[in-house]
Each structure stands twice: as C-alpha cells, then as structure tokens.
Design a protein that fits this description.
The complex is a heterodimer of chains A (about 130) and B (about 130). By secondary structure, chain A is mainly α. Chain A has four helices and no strands. The mean pLDDT of chain A is about 95. Classes of the chains: A mainly alpha (about 130), B mainly alpha (about 130).
C-alpha cells in the first residue's frame, strides 16, 4: 500500500485545559503511580514473609518521611483512580455523558478522593495516638 | 486492484495492533478490583496495629490469604495492561517500544510473582 500522509490530530498545545482532560491525564498519572505502589506493596509482602527482621526494616522505610509521602500519595492515587475508574465504567455502559453530568461527576471525584484520603489518614493518625 | 478486503487492510493498524481485547480485559480487571482493593484497604485499616505478629496472623487466615492472592494477581494484571497502553502511546520508535514492552512484562512477572509467592509462604507457613 502506498504511504500517504494520513490526517493527524492537532498538537495538544492548541486545546484549552478543562476539567475533563485534566482528570483524564491525572487518571493516567495516578495509574502509573499505582504501578510503582504495586512494587512497594509486593516488597512489603516479601518482607512480611521473610520474617520479623526484614519486616522491621520495611516498616522503618515506610515510616520515614519519604516513605510516608509515598503512602499518602498512593492512598490519594488509589482513591482517585478508584472513583474516576467507576466514572469511566458508567460511561462505558452509556451513562453520564451530558455536560453537567460530566462536570459534576468530575468534581465529585476530585472532592471525594481528597476527602477520603483525609479520612483514611485521620483514622490512621487517631489509631496511632490511642 | 487489491484483493484485500477493507477490513483486512485496517486490522493490526493503530498503536496497539489489536482490537477490543485489551480494552475489555482492562474493564473486567477494573470491576474485579473494586471489591478486592476495598477489602484490602478496610482490612488493613481495621487491624489494631500493623506490627509483624498482627499482620502475619491476619494474612495467615485462609480467607485473607486467598483474597490477598487474588488482589495481587489482578492488580498486577491491571497494572500491566495500563502501563502497556502508556508505552504504546508515548514510545514511538519501534525498537524502543519492543524493548520497553518486554522489560515491562518481565518487571510485572517479577513483582507480581514475588508478591504472590510471599503470600503463599505466609499461608503455608514457611
């Protein structure tokens, strides 16, 4: 088949940033972050299987400032990806395409994932103090 | 005149080189992960502490071990599907694409395999 110049989509730079495309990109970013989180989760499981000493080492790593930052970040990434994933599943079966519905569900995902992250770490903090 | 049908000409084009299989697998694993990951999160949150003895005792329960095994398996699969899509979209040179997809697949087998093996070691007490 002769190679022809196929029509290509315009460069991303010409689009105006909106809630829809921003949430879509964050969905992908949180997905990639969660893949790294899977490495951390499996490392934690391996350390647990390895015995008390290796588990203590992993626990120390997760309790360090970098480790805590990762854990809070992964909590948010998980909750966001979960809520926005459900939003995508609704679209897949044909619901929620109207402009208002898209915007409301989008902002619900943002507020919900932030609020739930606070709830989760509030619970952890409260449990840690008692 | 080409003897190829219009369908035959377009099959295998596009960045992923296949049709809806990848898309559908992603949705199925996504649906499975809703209850699995929520169970995982709530289980960890409801443990009195996250020290070695408590977590180990929790994961030694057959039901916990089984659900943790399913979670890690489906998470690895879903993560593999998602990151594959990212590489297919953003890595353009053919050689780099094949290489990074290969490394991605090996990395997921390694990480997921290690996680699953760890859960089995705990479940079977070795």
């Amino acid at each position: 088949m002769p190679a022809r110049a196929r029509p290509t989509s315009p460069h991303l730079g010409i689009y105006q940033w909106q809630i829809g495309n921003s949430l879509s990109i964050v969905h992908r970013l949180t997905g990639v972050a969660l893949s790294l989180g899977l490495v951390a989760l499996c490392y934690w499981l391996v350390s647990l299987a390895g015995g008390e000493q290796s588990y203590a080492q992993a626990a120390k790593l997760f309790a360090s400032p970098v480790g805590l930052f990762g854990l809070v970040g992964w909590t948010f990434a998980f909750l966001y990806h979960l809520l926005n994933g459900v939003r995508h599943l609704f679209w897949d079966v044909g619901y929620g395409f109207e402009r208002t519905q898209r915007h409301v569900s989008g902002w619900f995902v943002v507020a919900g994932s932030l609020a739930l992250t606070l709830c989760v770490w509030g619970l952890i903090w409260a449990g840690h103090r008692s | 005149m080409s003897l190829q049908s219009p369908l035959g000409r377009v099959l295998g084009l596009g960045s992923a080189k296949d049709g809806t299989g990848h898309w559908w697998a992603q949705r199925v694993s996504a649906v499975a992960l809703i209850p699995l990951t929520l169970w995982f999160m709530f289980s960890l949150l409801s443990l009195p502490a996250l020290d070695y003895a408590t977590v180990r005792a929790w994961l030694s329960f057959p039901m916990s071990g089984f659900l943790a095994l399913l979670s890690v398996t489906v998470l690895t699969y879903h993560s593999y599907l998602g990151t594959t899509e990212v590489i297919e979209d953003y890595v353009h040179s053919a050689g780099m694409k094949v290489l990074s997809l290969l490394l991605l697949r090996f990395a997921h087998a390694l990480v997921g395999g290690a996680g699953i093996f760890a859960i089995m070691r705990i479940a079977f007490g070795s």
